[in-house]
Batch of 2 targets.
Target 1
Amino acid sequence: MGKKNYRNIVQAQAANLDKAVGSLKSTLGDVAWLRNLSEAASTIREKCKGDDWSVQIDDMELPIENPKHLKPSKLKGNLKMFVSISMEGSGKGWKNEEDCIKNLCFKVEVIEKNQKDPQKKFQTGFHIDRVDDKDDSSEMHPLYHVHFLNESLIEGTEVLAMDVPRLMHHPVDVLLGILLVYANYNLTGYKKLLNDGLFMGLCRDSAKHILTPYYQSLSKVPWTEGVTSDYDKSLCPYLTA
C-alpha cells in the first residue's frame, strides 16, 4: 500500500479560510483584517505542498469594544487590539481526528492607542501556546496553555507585576481564535458571528478536529482507570507528574 497523501486536507484549510472571508464580508462588512485571512489562504495554497500546512499572521488589528473593569478608566476609547497567529497543522492528524497541531502561538495584545511616554506603556493580553518539545523551563507547562501577559511598563505603589501560571486551555486555529477574541472583546460583533451560519459551521468543523481530540485525551487523566499516553499526561502535568 502506497503512502497516504493528505494534500487535499491541506488545501481544504485554504478553502475554508476563503469561505470564511466571503461570509464575514456579508456579516461584518469589508473590514481590513479579512485581508490577513485571504493572504493566509493564498500562502497555504501556494507554499504548503506536502501533508502539513502553516499559517503566519502578524499584528492583525481587530476591534475592541468597551472592556469592563478598565483601569485606568481614562483609557476608555483609547485602546487597540492586535492578534498574531503562528501555527503548523498536520493533515494526517486532522484526517484521523487526532491532535493535529504541531506548533501554535496565538497571541492577543491590547495596548494604548496614543502612547506618548515610552516609560509608561499600558499593555495587556494573553497567548495560547503549544509547548515547544525543546522547552526545559522550570515553570509548569501544560502542553496547551493560556498565559496572561503582564507587561505594562508602569512603576508605582499600586502596581505588582510577576509571572502568572500557565493554565490548561484547548488549542485553537485561526477561525476558533477569532471567535474566541470576539466573544471576549466585542460582544456586538460576536452576536453577529453567531448568526453567520457558514462561519459558525466552519468553526464547528474546526472544533471537531481540534477540540474533540483534546478533551477526549484530557478525560482519561487521571479520573478513569487504564493506560494513558504521554500525550494525555502532558495536557495536565501537575496531576500526572
Target 2
Amino acid sequence: MAGVSRETPAGNVPVMRRRLRHCLGHCLGDRRWLGIALLAAIPLLAACTISNDPDGWAQPIAAEVEGRPVIIARVEDKLIGAIDLDRADAIVWMFPGAAAGRPESDDDDRPFPGLDDPVDAQGFYGAPATIGANDDEFVVADHNEGVVYAIRRDGSSARVLLDTGVPVIAGVVVADDARTIFVATTDERVYAIDTENPPRDVDDHEAFVWPPAEVEGRIWGTPALVRSETHGPLLIVPTMSGHVSALRTSDGTTAWTFVSGAGIASDVAIDGGLAFFGGFDRTFYAVDIESGDLRWSAQGAHWFWTNALAVNGAVYAGDLHGAVWAWDAQTGAARWPEPFQAGERIRAQPALTAAGELVIITREGTLLAVDPETGAQIWGDPETPLRTSNRVLATPLVLDDGSLVISDDQGVLWRSRVGAGRVCQVYPDRNLECERLLDTDRG
C-alpha cells in the first residue's frame, strides 16, 4: 500500500483504520479535529501507532566496558549490544543474547545469567541509562513485555527491576542519586523504583518509592528531570493526550499540568527554566517549569515527532514535513531567516558536534549539516545524497573524535563525519576501507 510507514502495521487496512481513528481521537484530544485529521493523517497511517512487531528506536550511547570504549546500541534481532568499533571481534556482549564470558550454544532458550526465564525482547525504544555509584549497570525497558532490566556493565548478568505488564516506550529516567529510577508506561502511570530494593510485584504499591502516579494519557516521550525553585525536583511527563504533568519526585504528587492542543510523542528538553516539546498539532511549546504556564509557542509545517535540542540559548527541532526550525530559547523568536528544508521527514533529534555543526539526519537516512547560527547548509549534496541503507529514527551519537554513530531501524550501525563524503557500515558487517577514508576525504 503506497505511503505506508514502516513504523506502522500494514497488513490489515480495516484494522489500521480503526486503530488510526482510536489513536487520533486519543492523541488529538479534541474530537472536533477528528474528521479532518483522519483525512490528513492517512498517508502517515497514524504516526502515533506502534507496529505489532516493533524494533525500537533507542538512541546509542558511548560507554566503557573493562577498559574498552564501546557503543551500547539496539542492534539486529531486537537486541541491546555492547559493540567495540575498534576491534574485529566487535561484540562484547548482547542482551538477551550472548552474555559476556558465556560460551555460545545452540540452546537459544537459555535464560540470560541472573534471570529465571528467557527474554523475548520485542524492541527497545528508550536510550540505555546507567545506575549505581560507579555506573555499574545499564537500565533498559523492553517494549513488548514491559519489563525493566538492569544489565551488568560487563554483560555478565542481568536482573529484573520491574515487570509493568504493559508496553513501555519512554526511556527510563535516573535520579541524581543514581539509585532511584522513574518508569513511564503506556497505561498512564509513572513508577518510582529504588533499584537496590526493587518491588517484587507491580501491584505491591508499598514497595515503590511512592505509589504509582497516574497522568492523563499514554506516555511515549521520555520525561525530563529538572530542579524547580518552587517545587523542588520535578519529573516533566508528556502524554499522548496532550497533557504535560510535572510530578514532584519526592512523593509523586502533581505540581502543575499544562494542556497542549494534541498528542506529544517526543521527549521533553529542558533549558533555562523552560520545558520544550512539540506536538501533533504542528505546534512547538516552551513552558515555564515553575508554574506550568506557556512562555511561547511556534507553528511548524507538520507534526513534531522530533526530540528538541536545547543548547547555547537556542532550541532546534525538525518536523514531519522535513523542516528544521531554530528559535531563541527564552523568547521564541526565530533565529534563522527561514526554516531549513531537509526535503524528507525528520524523526531523529538534531545533534551538535564539537566543531559547532548542527547535524540533521532524515527518516530516510540522509545526512546533512547546517550552520546553527544562520541555518545555511554546510554539508550534504541534494543531487547525490549521503545516506544509510535503512531508515533512521534514533538520534545520532557524536563521539569525542567528531565522528557520528548512527543506528538505523534495522539495527545496523553506521559511522560518518561532517565534511566526509561517505557513511560507513560498521556493524554487523564492516567496511574498513570506507572507515579509513573518513579522515582523508573531508570537504
